[in-house]
Amino acid sequence: MPNETTTAAGTPREARAPGAPSAPPPERPPCAGPGPAPGKEPGRGGYRAVFAVREFRAVFAAHLLSLLGVVVSELALTVLVYDLTGSPLLSALTFALGFLPYIVGGTLFAGVADRYPARRVLVTCDLICAGCVAVMVVPGTPVWGLLALRCVVAAVAPVFTGTRTAALTDILGEGDLYVLGRSLLRLVSQSALLVGFGAGGILLAALSPRGAITVTVVTFLCSAALLRLGTRDRPARTAGRGNGSLPAESLAGARAVLGDRRVRGLLLLFWVPAFFVVAPEALAAPYADALGAGPATLGLLMGAMAVGHIGAELYVGTALGPRARSRMVLPVAVLGLLPLVLYAFRPGTAVTVGALVLAGAGAAYVIGLDQWFVEAVPEPLRGRAMTLLTAGLMTVQGLGMALAGLAAEFFPVHQVVAVSGAAGSLCTLLLALEVRRTRVRYRSARQG
């Protein structure tokens, strides 16, 4: 399901085909195409058109490297803390710290994304992460130091992701290339769940936990080099216009973003389904145990939603045009959580996996929601809005997992997941009605 680092969310925009006859804005690739052929929608260049943009190739490769580094370091650090302490609680806390600091970084430091040039911010974030991970490798680093460094890396993450997302509008324009570019980064994030933990397991079999963490230092440094050498240096969005301290500017941006009814509704449409959909992932192990299944079944339950999301988003991004993607946002968002209600009947492995694949496929609504979000956010607030989106998405997923686990202490697992699906569907329906109302008003305001 959506998540920028471990399960991910995104933000598309208006769709146009590459190869515009008119001159593009300075330092941007052409993103406006000729009128569509009869019976066809614009934006059918597909993912190949996105990879044709040189700067995006650098961003994509950097994203792949840093993401794999994050996943491997999370796994290796969790193992390292357990080896040092023998405490399951501290080991679990190490993993949970990947979620908790997001809200801090996303609210207090979001202004960085608009105050400074994007390339400088991205490279600096990668270097900070590389430095933190390098200190983790030092044998004398105490456990509290490892946890503190983990928090720093997690706090930097939303600033990096928000800045990169906003920078994609400079690289790809605000049309369909941006939508598909965000989709590709999201697909990589989902694939990292399937590949990254496997790669981490292989590294831990061949190396010590500190040795595996060392590999991630290299991935962060390579990501920084790709971004420094492969992208253009563009001016900051609010250069010379910042007022007060960075936290004050960041909080002011958050108030401006959340104070807009349309933008607030779209943010919640990213966050609310993500809050509920994590329940089956959080409770996969106890549910597999209730089925009397082994590790192989647990692996299927853990990976099924990611497989559904990847397959559905590839189809939507390849086969559907911008208008079709826009039309599917609200109905797919509302229906996406309903397959989880099947848990109420305590289905076997086959039906459960099928329900999870369908729930994962429901996350493809975000490819159209991305477009609405970027259209609604004013350009000077774009970096802060994208950072807040990422921080909120990761935070609600962490809260959703924690609350699902708490509920499972008092109620059977299958009931918890089923109620999550039903309650999430109802909440998303109410939210979709609000977004629909604000869309009508937003269109009227633009036309007026």
From TrEMBL:
Its main location: membrane. It is a multi-pass membrane protein. The chain crosses the membrane at residues 58-82, 88-109, 121-138, 144-163, 184-206, 212-231, 265-284, 296-316, 328-345, 351-373, 385-407, 413-433. It is found in: Cell membrane. Gene3D superfamilies: MFS general substrate transporter like domains. This is MFS transporter. Residues 21-39 have a biased composition (Pro residues). Residues 1-41 are annotated as: Disordered. SUPFAM superfamilies: MFS general substrate transporter. Pfam families: MFS_1. Keywords: Cell membrane, Membrane, Transmembrane, Transmembrane helix. CDD domains: MFS_MefA_like.
